[in-house]
Amino acid sequence: MQIKRGKFAELDGAAVYAIARLRQEVFVVEQACAYPDLDDYDLDAETVHFWVEGGSPTEAVATLRVLRDGEHWKIGRVCTALSARGTGLSAKVFGAAMDLLGPEAEITLGAQTYAAGFYRRFGFTEEGEEYDEDGIMHVTMRRPAT
Q1: Which residues on adjacent β-strands are paired with residue 7?
Q2: pTM score > 0.90 for this model?
Q3: Could you report the per-residue pLDDT of 75-125, keeping only the tens digit for each?
Q4: Strands 72-80 and 107-112
Q5: Where are the domains of the chain?
Q6: 3-state secondary structure of 73
Q7: 121-126 contacts: CB < 8 A, separation 24 or more?
Q8: Do 51 and 62 contact (CB within 8 A), yes or no?
Q9: Using CA atoms, how far apart are residues 18 and 56, in angstroms rounded to an integer?
Q10: What CATH number does domain 3-143 carry, 3.40.50.300, 3.40.50.720, 3.40.630.30, 3.30.750.24?
Q11: Per the count of CB atoms within 10 A, which of 18, 45, 84, 86 is most buried?
């Protein structure tokens, strides 16, 4: 398993396709949530995409992105293919993103509420009330800089 990463301008067509396809499979089809997944954050010069290829360069089994949110960093679009869940792959990819940012970075994310425990393992804590985002309950989580 090799965790790949790159800014949008560094990605080839196969990588963009693989990332977008996995996000579509998980967020739009599996979670039955019709929303505009592709946004300008994907293209931002500071956004870094992480992914793990499956059986081919056009298949991803895990992905996430790291982007600037004002003065802080934000991790989002964290997803894993159904076939790779329970293998520890999500934790490895998330850990790679955390390593890139380092302990001095304050990081926020909008966690689907059921997944808050996963993010707590990385030092994130819930902040504020749950909110509905596109029909799925979320909670803001933050990991302060150390």
Answers
A1: none
A2: yes
A3: 999 999 999 999 999 999 999 999 999 999 999 999 999 999 999 999 999
A4: parallel
A5: 3-143
A6: strand
A7: 121/91, 122/94, 122/95, 122/98
A8: yes
A9: 9
A10: 3.40.630.30
A11: 18
How far apart CA 19 and CA 141 sit, in angstroms, is 24
**Closest among 92, 89, 81 to 122, alpha carbons compared:** 92
Angle at 53 between CA 139 and CA 96, to 5 degrees: 50
Task: Report the candidate in 65, 118, 53 with the shortest Cα–Cα distance to residue 91.
Answer: 118
Q: What kind and span of H or E run contains 19?
A: helix 13-23
d(CA 78, CA 111): 9
Q: Which residue has the tokens 């080839």?
A: 12
H/E run at residue 122: none
Burial of 54 (0-12, 13-18, 19+ CB in 10 A): middle
3 touches 91 (CB < 8 A): no
Q: Side chain identity at 29, as an amino acid letter?
A: V
Per-residue pLDDT reduced to its tens digit, 25-37: 999 999 988 888 8
The torsion angle over the Cα atoms of residues 146, 8, 32 and 90, rounded to 10 degrees, is -50
Structure token pair of residue 127 = 């902040």
